[in-house]
Design a protein that fits this description.
Strand content: under 5%
Radius of gyration: 17 Å
Order of helices and strands: HHH
Distance between the termini: 20 Å
Helix content: over 70%
Structural class: mainly alpha
Largest sheet: none
Number of helices: 3
Number of strands: 0
Shape: elongated
Length: 73
């Protein structure tokens, strides 16, 4: 990833979240007990808003970096 280019990292993070959600959907169809519900609530459910917040911040940072690059040209 070139310096100042956040889009590939953001894309990889978004893809990883989608892969995790797909894997969890597959696993949760066979693992449905108190432990699976606790795991989902404690570890998986908090990820989506945290990753959304991180991606939003990275988008804003990418905009700032793009503006700075244009100003330096």
């Amino acid at each position: 990833m070139p310096s100042g280019n956040l889009s590939s990292g953001m894309s990889r993070l978004d893809d990883a979240l989608k892969a995790l959600e797909a894997a969890w959907l597959d696993v949760s169809s066979r693992w449905s007990d108190a432990n699976s519900h606790h795991f989902s609530e404690a570890h998986l459910e908090p990820l989506r808003p945290q990753i959304k917040t991180a991606l939003d911040a990275a988008r804003r940072m990418a905009e700032v970096l793009a503006k700075a690059n244009r100003a330096c040209e």
